[in-house]
Amino acid sequence: MKDLDTTPNGGSAATWTADFLSKVGAADREFVVNGPTYRTIHRLAAGIRRLGGSRTEDRPLLCLCTENKACLAAAFLAALSGGPRLVLPYAFSRQALQEVLKTVTVSSILADQPGDFPPGSQVILPSMLEEKAPASFHNGIDADEPFLMLFTGGSTGTPKVWAKTPRNMIAEARYMIARFGITAEDIFLSTVPPQHIYGLLFSVLIPLIASARVLEGIYVFPREIMKVARETKSSVLVSVPACYRVLKGNFLKQHHLRLAFSSAGALDPGDADYFRENAGLDVNEIYGSTETGGVATRRRGTDGDAWHGLDPVQWRIIDGRLQVKSPFISPSLPRNPEGFFLTADRAVEDGPGCFVLKGRADDVVKVGGKRVDLAEIREKMMKIKGVQDALLVQIPTGQGRPVDLAALVVTEIDPGTLRQKMTALVEPYAIPRRFVMVDKIPVTPTGKYDRAEVQRILDATSL
Questions:
Q1: What is the CATH T-level fold of the domain 368-461, as seen in this structure?
Q2: For residue 447, which of 139, 210, 264, 338 is within the disulfide window of CB 3.0 to 4.6 Å?
Q3: Backbone φ and ψ of 389, nearest 5°
Q4: Distance between CA atoms of residues 276 and 77, nearest Å
């Protein structure tokens, strides 16, 4: 890519987007390995664009209930060229869609097949839209106009919606292409769904803009991942910490990967070391969020705990809280007069251009009047031999104490022994009152802890 403009004011509004569209070729080259070509995507984009209406001010919202990467790429191009604005729900269940429809008014739902959608929804299938001629992109929407609504949910249990502009998405994708040297020769293998920001960027938009290829599937089983990686000669792995935790075995040694990415949470140092030693690759961790976009990156083998801020991102730490200013930030976010957004993450500086995260601000709770850092307690618990994973949460008591602590733990150690081992590591008030032993801690499709499911487990095991 020659055009890597990531500045917040680079190019005029509509011209900037139109210039980007003119660089996305309509060749017969595959986008999906053994599947749709870039020309097919352009034909589908032409059909989706027709759903956008004739006036910019009343462009309808199209809800994308699909994990089809070619379809998502086509919808992205259609929206940028004046088609409908896009809505990506955090899940495709009936409940999740009902929550989306309560928040925004969508004109129709684009889905891979008919399904259990809320009553009154107009469902459109891709086969109904593809036109004979590829889309011809002469115009683009304003580069700073919100055109994509991303819903988040599951990890917190409370869905939120974040708007994104063309500049937000394209600038970040372009930066990542340049930063990691992505080329048209790369083949992307992903273990995460593409309707979330990390999966959308790294398994759809980055490959699309780099003229690379993707594998259509979402692969989650360790042996399946490495088997597919070998057989397709995939060069880029897009995954999450939960996957790297189970991605172990001699089959790691036989692959063609040159890049591995992880996001949606901190990668355990032991898991990072194992992958590096057995696969010969240091995993590139991406720190950020749906609302902020990418903020920083690190590789455990060379950086340890330190995060390096991305070049277009300005960051600072005030009163122990990380603040960021970036062309990737959603226009929905509040900023101070200097343009910085106050994140929920605590951090400390760690040398020039680097910082170390110290947990979330809401991870610091008061138990019996004492300050307890849940992330710190988890870190100490993870050092106990036999503890494979752990999650600490606060729970109301209703007995005078504002909160108590509970822990979900993946271990074969019995609760009494675990409690005893904890006494040598933390103060008595920081020891969880409840230990719930589980086979695994539930996570969302994006690899984050599923807080709603965790609460259900706690409710089901309460006395």
A1: GMP Synthetase; Chain A, domain 3 (3.30.300)
A2: 264
A3: -160, 155
A4: 37
